[in-house]
Amino acid sequence: MSIRFDPADAHWRVAPLPGFTSDQKDWLTRGGSLTAHLRTLGAVAVRVTREAVTVPWADEDRALDIAPRAPVWVREVVLSVDGTPFVAAHSVAPVAASAGVWQAIRRLRTRPLAELLYSDSSVARSSLVSRRLTARHPLFRLAAREIDRCNEGNPHTLVARRSVFERHGAPLMVTECMLPALWARLAARSAGARVAQQQRHIPREHGRPLEHTAARSHQGGAHAAAGVARSAVREAASGVAIHPDSETER
Fold first, then answer.
1. Where is the composition biased (Low complexity) (predicted)?
2. Looking at residue 203, what is its pLDDT?
3. Domain ranges (residues) in the chain
4. CA–CA separation, 111 vs 146, rounded Å?
């Protein structure tokens, strides 16, 4: 389904920047529900930080095809995984659309926006675009507050993505800033997977468990003892001393 709204500009680009990590490029371009992707990492919770009528950011009015100071409805949330903030999200729609075509966003409360966007066949989505955010961008400042709450340091830049959803001609733009905790979780998971793979490739004797090896050693010792006993019997019978290893005459 085609869409007439385009979030791309000189800063927001369809192709992720070359300096992004492989995890960042992956998550910045993943289609479908971000909430669903986060659920693969743990239990997801939505915390609403702001809902209000305001004016659009400087990089939003063109993408929404509205006047620079036209009123918009804004919803800002934090998506946490297992209690740790992973994403700060900012959704914006023209006020008229938020009271009409997109009025359901005003009743979401702590439910994820994905429940509206991916259950309605009349909703179309633009391409995903991404960029690096600095402290000059308002979304960076929103995300920085969550980072401060978790004592995760003070990053100089963050990465974010956005896209426009269109329903019956009305736009709703969603911008999602990924927080450092997300990249840390993905890096830890990748490191754990590498360790597990290395452990699977540790050579074992004929691929058998260690207890089997120990059992064979015990059996080998028993066979050797039996050989010595047989030699002693022959020695006693013949009167000739037999070496327990070579079984030759001394």
1. 216-230
2. 66
3. 22-200, 205-238
4. 19
- The model's pTM: 0.77
Residue ranges for the binding site for substrate? 75, 113, 176
Cα-based torsion angle of the residue sequence 241, 242, 243, 246 in order, rounded to the nearest 10 degrees? 150
Q: What angle do CA 85, 89, 92 make, to 5 degrees?
A: 160
Nearest to residue 49, comparing CAs of 122, 171, 144?
144
- Tokens found for residue 203: 């050579």
Residue 160 CB contacts under 8 Å (≥ 6 apart), including other chains:
130, 131, 133, 139, 175, 176, 177, 178
Q: Kindly indicate the confidence band of residue 198, based on its pLDDT and cuts at 50, 70 and 90.
A: confident
In contact, 240 and 249? CB cutoff 8 Å: yes
Q: Which of 176, 152, 173, 151 is nearest to 164 (CA)?
A: 173
Q: How far apart are alpha carbons 52 and 4 in whole angstroms?
A: 26
CA angle 65, 177, 126 (to 5 degrees): 40
Residues making up the annotated binding site are 75, 113, 176
Q: What is the DSSP letter of 16?
A: P
Contact 28, 159 (CB under 8 A): yes
Please state which CATH number belongs to domain 22-200: 3.40.1410.10
